[in-house]
Amino acid sequence: MNTQVKITWQAFGNKPERNRFISSVEFSLDSSAVSDEQLMDMIYRDTNLYAGPIWNAIEKLLPENRTHTSLSIGDTIQINEIVYIVSDFGFIKKENAEIQMFGDAIFSVTEKVGA
Fold first, then answer.
1. How wide is the angle at C-alpha 53 spanned by C-alphas 83 and 88, nearest 5°?
2. Residue 39 belongs to what H/E stretch?
3. Phi and psi dihedrals of 94, rounded to 5?
4. Among residues of the chain, what percentage have pLDDT more than 90?
5. Rounded to a whole number, what is the distance in angstroms from the first to the last CA of the chain?
6. Strand pairing of 105-111 and 97-102?
């Protein structure tokens, strides 16, 4: 199964004067053998280690102004049509997320009560 993936680094806002940019990378891969949760864990691992199959797929696609690629609380991963957000502990569907800001940066992401 061909899966469309979009990773968006947005946790720290878009502040060029502070060398902070919102940026994304899109790619497709065959993920028929893994669940969304497993794929997100792979993305998290590979973008933090700068190594692995996901890293190999995205490294050449990254924008030049990208200052780091490790995922932070508030960054998003879209898998096909579903958008997930990196939370305090794991990943949450974005529509179920309670987002707390600290200034212009995302500070905490937890699941909404009753979601």
1. 40
2. helix 36-49
3. -55, -35
4. 53
5. 29
6. antiparallel
Structure tokens at 103: 């200034």
Q: What does the block give as tokens for 71?
A: 């995922």
Sign of the alpha-carbon torsion through 31, 36, 38, 39: positive
Q: Are 8 and 23 in contact (CB under 8 A)?
A: yes
d(CA 65, CA 17): 12
Mean pLDDT of 106-112: 89
> What is the predicted pLDDT for the residue at 2?
87
d(CA 40, CA 74) in angstroms, rounded, equals 14
Mean pLDDT of the chain: 87
pLDDT in tens, 53-71: 999 989 989 877 666 788 9
> What does the alpha-carbon distance between residue 107 and residue 85 come to, in Å, rounded to a whole number?
13
pLDDT at 76 over 90: yes
